[in-house]
Amino acid sequence: MSTILLDVFNVWTLGALLLGTTLGIIIGALPGLGSVVGLSICLPFTFGMDTVPSLTLLLGVYCGSVYGGSISAILVNSPGTPQAAATTLDGYPMAQRGEGGLALGWATVASVLGGLISCGVLILAAPQLSRFATSFGSVEVFALIVLALTCIAAVSHGNTAKGLLMGLIGLMLALVGTDPVTGAARFTFGTPFLSAGFDLIAVVIGLFALSEAFWRVATGNAESAEVSGVRMTLPRLSAWKGRIGTLIRSSGIGCLVGALPGTGAATASFISYAVARQVSPRGDGFGRGEPEGIVAAEASNNAVTGSAMIPTLALGIPGDVVTAILLSALVVHGITPGVRLMTEHLDVVNAIFVVLILINLVMMVVAFPLVRLFGRLLMIPQHLVTAGIVVFGILGAATVRGNPLDVLVAVGFGAAGLVFRLTGFPLAPLVIGLVLGPQFEQTLRRGLLLNDGNFLSFFTDGPLAAVLFLVAALALAAPVIGALRKPRLQDSETK
Amino acid sequence: MAQNSDRILCLGLVTLAMAAFGWSFIGGGGINAASTDQPMRLPRILLGLWALLGVGCALRPARSDDTSDGRAQHLGRTTALIGMLFLVAVSLPTLGYLVPVTGGVAVLLWLLEERRPLPFAVSLAVLGPGLWALFHHGLGLRLPLMMSGGVF
Amino acid sequence: MRKTTTFAVICAAFGVAGTAQAQTLELVVPFGAGGGTDTVARVFEPGFAAKLDRTVVIRNTAGASGTIGAASVAQAAADGNTLGYLPIGPLAIQPSLRDTSYGLDSFDYICQTTSTPVFLLNKSGSANADLAAWVAQGTEDRVVYGSSGPGTIPHLAMAAFTTEAGINSVHLPFDGTGMAMNAMAGGEIDLFVDTATVMESNDVTALAVFSPERLEAYPDIPTMQELGYDLDFSVWQGVVAPKGLDEEQRSALSDACAAAIEAEAFVELAKKTNTGLMYRNAEDFEAFVSRNAEMNAQILRDAGLTQ
């Protein structure tokens, strides 16, 4: 125990902790820049550092950026990262009502608690959860993705047809590029650039950040929330009454999704948002500034930060780009990640546990001055805020894969996003489709390859898949049954 | 007017889906014809559903609540902004980042009606060269260059 | 008139500013920061820069299995200010798998830096104890093998093996090694091919190594040749320049590369990551890439993956 204390409580680690978390929140909060850009900035510096401080820096940037995305999602309706896309749904309406500070308070507390809960799960149940994660074969993951896709209906806000159409467009966009199974070029129109497919981050920058800037120009800022000088206010304890369940459930969903390789925080936040909307007695208020929507999105996406470490540390299997970068940092420092990591390098693993908890606590503290800083920043005239959104959007798109053509993609989706906003098409389903598309296709086709092309055998694959398909069917049927039961009410709701 | 633009968009999306459906038979494929599963099967199913839903959207009785046309008054200016950003994006690979983006920010500020000289100059310097220097040279995130080995 | 002069002066000033500091050398890595190739390149860079006495910066241009980054190197000016740190995939496999805007002759070759043999892996404690048992299963029924994507070395090596052994197989591609290893732990795939790093960090055991001779570090693992299959696969990396580099620059870069490989940090990283160091100079590397690409193209054709 004392060695862990020495590892963690020294100037270097604590400095890296503070610096990484702060930097991560700032980078996450800038529309356009997200976790990947933040880690790319810090990675070169870690080569000269000791193991624990360098991991601390990277983890701080990662957790900070996942939380930071919510700040711009709430205050300027542009999620700083794809993970925070679900947070805009209720966060921005709250800011428009003048409750931006309170919305940030909900987001912060939910993020921190979600993060801490997942740390607990990571410390107590990593081996069990990682073993459970390996029982998810292609068919099981496919069933989970189908379940996740059902949340498109939940974020379509009374216009299911348009929402489904946008979800399909998102799924289809995910298929552009090199076929992941055969390597064939699909819808690339002979261009090498399109063979790499559309980058999620570039599309999100266009759809949300750039189209928000265009919308502000088109409406003359008439619709923008008045957020200058905002200060974070924490929600009262009494307000948590009845919302604790959502916090715990969403953290649980985040922990489970995070433990599965290849899914990630954006998926988790949409699933838990959809589930919360179905289960919560305040579900009808979702999408119009209900704090519970923020809690659902933020608790789950930050819960992923801890549980994404489960396959990474227990099996050496990186779940996403971020954990892959963390693993490579381990390798550079001479630690072989993998099944033997927990037994051979328990000191490092324990240090990671302690650091993750500290990061969440530090986040709570530094969030206050950083939100004030952002509030101050937003005190500059609104049109300059708009200019800033545009420039950070371009910067983010240009750096995400180092390909200048991604800027063109972002601008194109910015224009499309404006058209969709003007015609009342919801944007979130498109992102859901794009996020889930690659996994949807790959797991479906791997399942078909394994079952000689017989789709029906998916349902007899095993109990886990059967349960997941059943839940997905229920999730699809629930709103239909609800709509049949109270058609009049549903109609008046959409007004 | 509002419902019409909604319908036009739906029909446009249907056309797009059908064009992509057609393309899936001409382009693509090519490589890997010998493989057991077909790379174009899922895209065709999705495009079919997309077209069906699009038709459904276009035929659906118009609803007053799902469009927000009236509030967008400055569409001309917005179009100019989008067009300008397209030009910036297209010129990035050849002209590098600094020059097109600085020019673009100047136009952007003008379009946003920033006419006071000092705020204009300060915003331009910060959002153009300032951020470029910070990211490209300060943080080591390489942005597109005009000349290989050059400074910008 | 005055305007034209001003314009000319501004242009000239820009031109000077653009070339004055022509000391920065950009090393393009065709994968994202933090990936396997990127990690090696970032440790390679300091030694390379020190020998050249220039500032070398890494530019990550990711996408399409590394072909976007490789294409950007091929298109860059051949002034020695842009080089590429490319692994086997974009250099010697992808051009025969898909339409890339570049080919083998789009580059001038500087040096090879690494060469790491790959192993045939199965889950530890699997029902089939050796390769012969898997071949038997594949002859009667089928074996399922994974890969980290179509046209990667894990795919190619297995495709070559199943063709040579004449067994029934199903290929399941995954988004990278991590997810394939998850599938192996869950029993979805039987066999996988990858480097010693992957072998060490997962609960898998090696059936054979795809190298001509047994490895010093793993003397107990038989070679594929001993088991009756004449297969030799490795993953390698090297430095290339856009075509048309002048001879003097090329040999200077090649020398700097040799020095960078011998640098202490690089040797240490190689040891930590079980990466094999392998220096080939410009001519040898060029000949090697051309041989290797031809062999890979043949495997793709034999396995029916390309026409």
Q: What is the fold's blueprint, element by element?
A:
The complex is a heterotrimer of chains A (495), B (152) and C (307).
Chain A: H1 2-8, H2 11-29, H3 35-46, H4 51-76, H5 85-96, H6 100-134, H7 138-149, H8 151-154, H9 160-175, E1 177-178, E2 185-186, H10 192-195, H11 200-219, H12 244-259, H13 265-279, H14 291-307, H15 309-315, H16 321-332, H17 341-344, H18 346-377, H19 382-400, H20 405-422, H21 428-450, H22 463-485, H23 487-493
Antiparallel strand pairs in A: 1-2
Chain B: H1 2-26, H2 41-59, H3 75-95, H4 98-111, H5 117-138
Helix pairs in contact in B: 1-2, 3-4, 4-5
Chain C: H1 2-20, E1 24-29, H2 36-52, E2 55-60, H3 67-75, E3 82-87, H4 88-97, E4 107-117, E5 119-123, H5 131-140, E6 143-147, H6 153-165, E7 169-173, H7 177-185, E8 191-194, H8 196-201, E9 204-209, E10 234-242, H9 247-262, H10 264-272, E11 277-280, H11 282-302
Parallel strand pairs in C: 1-2, 1-3, 6-7
Antiparallel strand pairs in C: 3-10, 4-10, 4-11, 5-8, 5-9
**What is the overall pLDDT average of chain B?**
82
Portion in beta strands of chain B: under 5%
Query: What is the H-and-E element order of chain C?
Result: HEHEHEHEEHEHEHEHEEHHEH
SSE sequence of chain B, one letter per element = HHHHH
Shape type of chain C: globular
- Any low-confidence stretches of chain B, pLDDT <50, length ≥5? 29-35
Percent of residues of chain B in helical segments? Answer: 55-70%
Main sheet specs of chain C: 6 strands, mixed
The overall pLDDT of chain C, averaged over residues, is 85
Question: For the record, what is the CATH homologous superfamily label of the largest domain in chain C?
Answer: Bordetella uptake gene, domain 1
Beta-strand residue percentage of chain C = 15-25%
Task: Tag the structure with descriptive keywords.
heterotrimer; A: 495 residues; mainly alpha; two-stranded antiparallel ribbon; 73% helix; globular; B: 152 residues; 2 domains; 5 helices
What can you see in these coordinates?
Chain A has 495 residues and is mainly α. Chain A is built from 23 helices and 2 strands. Chain A has one domain (2-493). The radius of gyration of chain A is 22 Å and the shape is globular. The model of chain A is unreliable at 487-495 (pLDDT under 50). Chain B is flat and about 55 Å long. Chain B has 152 residues and is an all-alpha fold. In chain C, helix 2 packs across helix 9. Chain C has 307 residues and is of the alpha/beta class. Chain C has 2 domains: 23-116 and 234-302, 3-Layer(aba) Sandwich (D-Maltodextrin-Binding Protein, domain 2); 119-209, Periplasmic binding protein-like II (D-Maltodextrin-Binding Protein, domain 2, 3-Layer(aba) Sandwich). The chains are: A mainly alpha (495), B mainly alpha (152), C alpha/beta (307). Chains in contact: A-B, A-C, B-C. At the A-B interface, helix 3, helix 9, strand 2, helix 11 and helix 19 of A face helix 1, helix 2, helix 3, helix 4 and helix 5 of B. Chain A: Residues 14-432 form the DUF112 domain. Chain A: This is Putative tricarboxylic transport membrane protein. Chain A: Keywords: Membrane, Transmembrane, Transmembrane helix.
